[in-house]
Each structure stands twice: as structure tokens, then as C-alpha cells.
Amino acid sequence: MGRAPCCDKTKVKRGPWSPEEDTTLRNFVQKHGTSGSWISLPQKAGLKRCGKSCRLRWLNYLRPNIKHGGFTHEEDTIILTLYHNIGSRWSVIASQLPGRTDNDVKNYWNTKLKKKLFVANHPTTATATTEGINSKIDSMSPYFPVDAEILDHQFLPPDEMPDCAPIPSAPASLSNIHANGLYEDDAFLVESMPYDAFDFQDKFSYQSNYLEPMYQSYTY
DNA sequence: AACTGGTTCAACCGCGTCTGA
DNA sequence: ATCAGACGCGGTTGAACCAGT
Hints:
10 helices; 0% strand; elongated; DNA-binding; repeat
């Protein structure tokens, strides 16, 4: 006996959104907001969609200032650092990346960054399949090492983060690395995530000074 | 050109948490 | 204090696209 569905699946449209539906939803939300209830919004807006589907479409695609694709090195660093410290709290991680959604960050981690990090640190397995790499990564400790210089970053809670706030810049030593004959992306990751040279003192200092207060402010 | 396997990412699902009556 | 409905989240799925053969 499972939980009752949030809406009648036989009466709502599913699958990809059409441009017309996007326009309807965008216009309605911009004019009326969410009216305090996503569940009732589709009916008010004249959409044959589940409220949860509307909410997801708005948050991940239609709302202003959304950025798609092209994650920067600085964003990579922030994702890796926060994943190392708090795990797969994608909404918390995304809140530190203006314009990024939790879905975007999650997809980026699962499809690209995780593999990139592993390959950069295990060059001999670079030709392995994604499935094989993923299974290896999943069996590893979640506690990736963190470069001490990342301590310089300042993180803001979401309600203090302006929509177009600049992403905290990476330290110079992390921004212009071309080492070991690797591409800049890979060299950057290798240099910023040195598996064998992690300073635990720095990790705990960083965790207690910056991440734990932030993490606690998000606990729900 | 056709097929196949891999990759990407939008969307869905179900569960935990929150909130207001 | 309790409970039902709504919200928000992380995990997963599958269609579309891409690259190699």
C-alpha cells in the first residue's frame, strides 16, 4: 500500500514540455506568482500538468537567471569541495552556484565531474567504461581530499546570495595550471584534489569554520 | 547509410519534512 | 499534540542525441 499519488496521472499530460506550455507557465508565474500553491497552479493557469511537474519546470528551466551547461573551474572546485564535506546535498551545493539548479549540479556530477575526477587521478584506467568507473567511484570513500587554498572561499546562504552574484574566484594557483601533459581541466583537478597529500588539519579547520555553520543553517 | 553503444539531461518518482488547521 | 496536505529533495529513468564502426 503506497502513498496516494499527488494527482490523477490519467488526467495530466506527462513528458517533455511544449513551447506553448512553457509560455503559459512563465506568464502565469510572472503575473501571479505561485499563488501559494503549486498543486492548484496548473488548474488556475490552464495547464494539464501535475503541480509538481510545473514546479520542477519553473525551478529548473523557466525562472530568470538560470544558467545551463559550461561549468567553470571555479564551479567545479565548489562542487567538489562541498560534495567532499556534505555529500550529495545538491540543493545546498547549488545554492552556492548562482544560476545553477540542484538538478543541473546533480546531472553534472553524475555524468561528467565524477568521471573527470576519477580519470584525472587514475590515468591508467582512463580507457575503462563509464559503468566501470562509476562502480569504482561509488565504492570509494566519499571523503575526497580538498586543497587547503579553497579555505579562502566565502560561502553565503541562499537568502543572502544575490541572483547574479559573482562566483567566488579560485585561488590563482588553481586557475592557471598546465601540468603533467594533461589538459587544463584534468591538470586542474589533479592539482586541486591531490589524493596523497591531504592535510587533515586544514580540512577540519575549513569544515568547522565555514561548512558546518552553513550546513546547519540548511538542516530541515 | 544503417546500426550500435555510450552520453546527456529533462522529467518523473517516492519519501522525508514542513506547515497550518 | 496530531494529522493531512503540500513542498522539497535526491535517486532514477528514458528519450534524444552523438560518435564510432
